Amino acid sequence: MNITFTDKATKQLTPILAQTGRMLKLKYDTDGCGCLVDGVIALWLVDEADEDDIAVETNFVPVLVEKSRLIFYDDVMTIDVVEGTSSFLLKSPGQILNPRMPLIEVSERHER
């Protein structure tokens, strides 16, 4: 898997990561979606990796991804900023995986 951050995304995320000391995780979130294959990919800020997470090297910082959910991602993806919002865009050469991916700060008490 190859994940690239655009310059705009790097610029927006750098101060957040520096201030929080947290890691980025692409989370295939199925809460409220009905079933496993109806999930939505979100960008999470987390304190540590879960047991199922793998770290994917990028042109910016490593990103955690759930090993058991790799089938829902494309081999080549780009994370960009949605202009005029605090959302991010996750796309691949063949599709847009999430046009408005929020950055969610996950607390220790949040069920992952």
Short description:
The protein contains 1 helix and 9 strands, in the order βαββββββββ. With 112 residues, the chain is mostly beta strands.
Walk me through the structure.
The strands form 2 sheets. Strands 4-5-2-3-9 form a 5-stranded mixed sheet, with no helix packed on it. A 4-stranded mixed sheet has the order 1-6-7-8. With 112 residues, the chain is mostly beta strands. The two termini are 22 Å apart. Residues 32-36 have low confidence and may be disordered. The chain is 12% helix and 40% strand. It is globular.
What's the overall average pLDDT, rounded? 89
**In terms of structural class, how would the helical and strand content be classed?**
mainly beta
Low-confidence stretches: 32-36
H/I helix tally: 1
Question: How are the strands of the largest sheet arranged?
Answer: 4-5-2-3-9
Strand content range: 35-45%
Structural shape: globular
Question: Main sheet?
Answer: 5 strands, mixed
Radius of gyration: 13 Å
Number of strands: 9
Strand and helix order:
EHEEEEEEEE
First-residue to last-residue Cα separation = 22 Å
Helix percentage: 10-25%
Keywords summarizing the entry:
112 residues; mainly beta; 5-stranded mixed β-sheet; 4-stranded mixed β-sheet; 1 helix; 9 strands; 12% helix; globular
Write the layout of secondary structure elements.
Blueprint lengths: L1 E4 L1 H14 L2 E7 L10 E7 L6 E4 L6 E4 L9 E6 L6 E4 L4 E6 L1 E3 L7
